[in-house]
Structures are given as structure tokens and as C-alpha cells.
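Running co-folding for zinc ion.
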Amino acid sequence: MRDEYDIIVIMTNGKYIEFKKRELHCHLCGALNLQPIKEICNKHGIEIPSGKELDDLLHIREPVGSMLEYFQPWSILKQLPRNKNCIEMMISSVLKDFKKDNIEYVELRYSPLTFIQAAGVDIDTALDWIAYSIQKHESYSGIRARLVLTMSRFNFDFDFAEKLLKSIVRSNMGGTIVGIDLVGDEGLPIPADASKLFRKAKEEYGLGLTVHAGETWNLENVRWAVDECGADRIGHGLAASSCEKMMDLLREKDVCVEVCLQSNYLTGNVKNLKKHPVIKFIEFGVPFVLCTDNPALQDFSLSDEYELFEKITGREDLLEHMISMQRKHSFE
Ligand SMILES: [Zn+2]
């Protein structure tokens, strides 16, 4: 039951389509609409329900009870990249949808390990296919697209991560891969030596570093990402709002928080949007950009995020300057 301070989110998808935008925190599979999902599943014999049951399985429109529940759609989504054609269809579809929302640049996040496992290929092949698809559909869609590779806390493997970095550097990919990210259950212990590897990625290989941290209110994960890994950006970062010292640090180091309002509401990590941590970030001058996280899964575009931000904060003036923050903190 909603309390009196809750905002009922109504997607209007209108006013902010006019704004040129950059999307800096968006997972490829979470941006995929039903059509390519159905096509790939039908072609490759991946069993899915039909009609409303499928719609319910692949959308989160009301707050869930746990992060595990939020990730339920990935039981299907992780099976999709069966081959080069599948990944190309996924990227093409996502970029077309972003174009409709007047997005000029996107950093798509994707797990190379998921791809390698689903398609049964090696690291080099997986990266080649993804980069090829992005480069091809950038020109078709007119959107500049880059890739941020994700690694998970759940199955973080130092040797694999090292091989991945070497593969990125070896193949170059025409500059398509611009960053790396750590995702997954923040309750799990921090992977051993991950910070060493992330520093190397940043300092030796010139990759941008973002870390999902503080999404489930774990402040230590934010500290670790900033202090030990040298993160350029923090995904969600909700916990930082509970510590003035941390917000000062983010401001002083110019570490940008990727704020995803609707995602935070739907994961149940922010119960009352009128008290979203972004209000504290504004107060303390913490750099932030608005992002969607999983726009198709949530049925909520980046324009909708802008509109929601305006409803929560009343700061349309900040939206007018959002593109300059997005440009400043992009990894390209
Ligand atoms: Zn995310």
C-alpha cells in the first residue's frame, strides 16, 4: 500500500524527448523490447510463455520484494546471445529505441561472460562480435554507442578478468570498449584483488571505471570503489547520501553518481521517491547524471526519468544542464 508521500509514477514520455541526452548507465538486456526477445527465442528454441504471462515475466512495473526478484527476467535474457546474429539484432533494436528518445550517445553495459557461456565462444570472438555489431549499428542508428564490460561479484574470476583486459587491449575494437563495471549482489564479499585489477584497467589501459556500489545501502562498497579502486563513476550510490564525509569526497574527487530513480524505486531500495538521495546529492554538490538502468524492463525511458526528477526535486534548471554533465563524465 502506498503512503501519502509516494509518487505514483505515470509515464508521459513527452516533454523531455526534446532534450538531447546521453545514457551512461544502461544494461543491454534490460533495454531490449519484447519483439527481438520473442524472435530470438522462437528461432533458437528457447522456451518462453506467451501473451500476458511473457509480458509479466519480462517487465518490472511495481516495486519488488528483493533484488533477486528484480533480476528474474535475466533467467530468459541471459540465454539470448546465441550467435553473432542474435547480438546484432539485440544491439540494433536497442539503438533504434534510444534514437526515438533523442539519445545521442550511449554506454551499453554487457557481461562478456554471459555471452561466452550462451554462445559457446572464446573471449576474443565474443568481443569481436559485440564491437562489430555496435560499430555497424551506430552508423545505421545515428547514435554513438560504446561498451562498458561488466564483471559480477557473484562469479568474479581474477584470471578471467585479466584475460579480458588483455583481449580488450590486443584487439582495440576501434575504441568501442570504453570502460568496465562491477555488478551483482553487494552483500557478497568484495572479490579479492579486484581493486588491483581495476586500477590497472584504468591506469595502464586507459579504461573508465564504474562500480555498482551503495545500491542496497552498503556504504563500505562505495568507500572501496572510490578509495581502493579509483572509480570514476558510481552506479546508484544510494548509501553515499547517509554520510556527509562520503558526499564531500565524491564532490572533491569529482566522482559522478549514476542516478537511476525508477530503478531504485522498483528494486525497493528507495521506498519514497520524494526522499530519494539525489536530493542530498544536489545539496552537497555531488556530481550526478540521470540514467535508466533497464529502460525496457521497467517500461520507463530516459525522458521519463527526467520528468520524474522534475516531479521529485522541482529542479528543471538542472535538467537543462544535464547534457554537459553527461558529456563531462562519459568514458569516450
Ligand atoms: Zn545497473
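Result summary
The chain has one domain: 15-328.
Residues 15-328 form a domain with the TIM Barrel fold (CATH 3.20.20.140).
Job closed.
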